[in-house]
Amino acid sequence: RQVKEIVNTLLPGLFECANGFSPKFPHKPAPDALLDIVDKFNLDLSKTALVGDSVIDIQTAKNANITSVGVTWGFGGKDSFVDFLPDFVADDAEQLYNLVKRSPSATDVR
């Protein structure tokens, strides 16, 4: 619920799906929950990204073989994940918005 509130407030209309913890799946960095979303929306893994604020999120994206976007606000901050080499880093919601919007396949980056 918290994830959806943040996304709807800071980035309205940009993401089709935003999920947090669910007891239905193993904990991250297991990619099961993420791959369920990919399957549910019939996404192309090469055009899909996970946006997260921790090293676990970056590891989850890598375990699912999708693009990782680390955001420097939230749980961990940049120092917590920079060594795990996310594909992209956004320092604020505006940078994240611009990153997604300028993507050649922005409609597929969720």
Quick take:
The chain is α/β, with parallel strands linked by helices and 110 residues long. Helices cover 37% and strands 11% of the residues.
Helix content: 25-40%
**H-E string:** HHEHEHEH
Number of helices: 5
Oligomer: single chain
Question: Overview of this structure, please?
Answer:
The chain has 110 residues and is α/β, with parallel strands linked by helices. The chain is 37% helix and 11% strand. The protein contains 5 helices and 3 strands, in the order H-H-E-H-E-H-E-H. The chain has helices spanning 2-10, 32-40, 55-63, 78-81, 93-102, and strands spanning 49-52, 67-71, 88-90. A 3-stranded parallel beta sheet has the order 1-2-3, with helices on both faces. It is globular.
What descriptors fit this protein?
three-stranded parallel sheet; single chain; 110 residues; alpha/beta
List the helices and strands and how they pair.
Layout: H1 2-10, H2 32-40, E1 49-52, H3 55-63, E2 67-71, H4 78-81, E3 88-90, H5 93-102
Parallel strand pairs: 1-2, 2-3
